[in-house]
Amino acid sequence: MERPASLARNPALDTWLSLEVHGRVLLRTGKVELGQRLHRALRMIAAAELGLHPSCLQVTEVSSDGGPDEGYTVGSNSLESTGEAVRAACATARTTLLACAAVRLGATADTLCIKPDGGISHQDDDTGITLWDLLPEGRFPRDAMVEWTADYTPPAPPPASDPGSYDQRRLALGQYEYVQDLRLPGMLHARVIRPPHLHALLETTDGAAAELAAARGVDFVRKGSFFAVYGEEEFVVVRAASYLARKLQWRRIRPAPGGDFADLLRSGARVSLPVVDGIPVDETVPALGDPPAEASLTVSLDFEKPYLLHGSLGPSAAAAWMMGDELRVWSHTQGVRPLRLALAGALGIEPARVQVTHVRGPGCYGHNGADDAALDAALVAAHCPGRPVLLKWTRDDEHGWEPCGPAMLMALRASLDTAGQIIEWSHESMSDGHIMRAFPQLADQGASRLLAWRFLEPGRSAPSPVPIRAHHAGIHRNLEPGYDFGSLRTVKTLVRDLPLRTSSLRSLGAAGNVLAIEGMMEELAEQSGQDPLAFRLRHMADARGKVTLEALAARLPRRMVSANGSSAWGIGYARYKNEKAWCAIGAELELADDTSLRLRSAVIVADCGHAVDPQAVSAQLEGGFFQAASWALLEELRYDEDGVVTRDWESYPVLRLGDACRVQTHLIGRPGERWLGVGEASCGPGLAAIVNAASRLLQFRFTRLPLTPDNIRQALLTAP
Amino acid sequence: MKLRINGEWQGLEAEAGWPLAYALRNRLDLTGTKLGCELEQCRACVVLADGHCTPSCVRTVADFRGRNIVTVEGLSREHPEEFARVIAAVCAEQAAQCGYCMPGMLVAMVGKLASTPEASEEELKAALESHICRCGSYGALLRTLSRLAAEKDDGTACQPG
User: What pTM, to 2 d.p., does this model score?
Assistant: First the structure.
């Protein structure tokens, strides 16, 4: 196991933890708490290495000032990066502290022990000194570095009495402050007003805008085509914004391309790259050619996944305060430091003058509107120096302008020989950019990736994506299957000039790719008369993958279709990025009277190595499953030449509690194995399991989402 | 313009035209009620109005005149037995992820149990069927409802998990 990049970037021990508060070890991380219970896991890891009771550990707020620089909290990477860094830092701290104690006591370090309450014992006797007596001002020396070792002390699961990253009771009562709840002295409330077209210029003159605003009792800020209203009383601002949204005049610069997303993906200008060992290579894409001569069965399938919303329950928000020439920002961003740099770039101020602090937000499933709201708030704050500003997006803003999950088209062809073995596999995935976050250290990938930037000056346009080259990233994440085939042709294609603003949505390309792979596996098994589980297992060399799939099989009924044909099970399997958690899911569907598909039950099996907090792991796996269920059965972002038209929960239906089913989650215990990221592991398998269940139930290979009654009817009617 | 909110009469004349949620959050410092859509579509903002679970994001203070309102902050005082059962079950199942939907879920669960103490699992599910949780915590939430239905004969509250 390699030293994580987080430690290479932040090698000093003092960056990671300190003891200046008696009774507490303060941990610092650059990864934020999104509701995935990461900070509690860090406390468990730290407690195990230090030998302390978890209640002694505290994770401090994540801010761009102080603490380690760890980029974005994404990719199911957190536990493997910051988790390993915190572990190593605590192991180093333990050694350092016991060495200090040894000097103080005139003993040798190996006779000393840290007790769960932080006291130091010498051969089981109290010494009267504690961890908090050992370091000047509770800080490690600046030149003390974290020593890296792959050895680790497996953390125990959190005790039932542990309140967690955030106490369940306080959380359920709404007692924690979200960005949307912030109260700052002299605070102004603000709302942004966006155009009715995707590409537009604000034509209303400043004078006219001033009259309109004054008439509604608010002030306004306008920079180019960026327009926001603000005032002291929130509801007055809300009413004014609603009024001004109808009154402001906009000129559409150009229409967005219309048409069906699959047609646009098939026909648009493109860049195609072959993918080898998970990485796109600069070579000619090999032609598909004819199936091999030995092929006894060849199947071609195209899978289509529409644009999807993150659709966080609470629309994005941010607070900003210009104090002199210092800008303070409070945001539910996934990356406090990249956001700081991007904001500094957008506003033309020194990064050292900007501080971004993470405050909890409503659920985060990828690159949503949080960073954009931060720029919106900062622009208003810059206009009102000395006053804090809390700016909130509306539901309409969020649906219309958040960077959405890209539409995908997966074109597959596979062939079997006479023995029923796969001898040919080709998979090309076509999509828009999946990673359009701000990366301010790269040219043209900083401020321009924040939404308001393009409104500030005429002639600025939305940034264009470039093909991502990282291992299992973007469009090609999980493009290479977790099976072993003789011949593999995998191609990723970035399509240009698509209508909507897109970026990372939970699992990125993996959901679409796994949907397609698992659908093809089912089709091949069915056409060749093979059992779908046995078919998968015969093509799998990955030992832990096999154990995962077999553990699922053991928990499914023998019959995949119920005796009366009214319900059916489907399976989905993948190892996220082919290097993180393994996940196999069985989902059972039935057809309701209104011809909608309904979830009956589900089983999730996963291997995530050592589960630091098993209940948190289950929460992530089940959460990803239900999100995928919503994609499979309900969600489809619709658009026209002016942009997104599905602007609320009625036009963009999502899974509600009444649509959900009981789910059982089983974690394969792997004590001693490294912990693996799970946040996105269940999305692909969940999506595949549900679509495969529907296909089995209705005896039809569905290849286009979502599986609404209308779409099902359409698919069945237009089948050849 | 008086409303009884969490057991106390509040005068909200100046806010008569505001959605109740704005009065709760911005006048009375009751920020436990969260806003998700301001369209009565997501159930994040529900409160109990004369015992009925009602969204507070569109209907105004005037619309609620004379009603007995209980917000998430008032559940433990106004419905102590039901609250204790619900919070224990929620904590045991660790149902909250980001937590944004939870005040609405809590109000709905307590409201249902207060009106129907012997509510079955199906009845509890029906009372919460329109609630949205985008984190997909439905597995834990359904297990919470199972616990509540199974415990309906047991008046003991467990310590929070």
Answer: 0.97
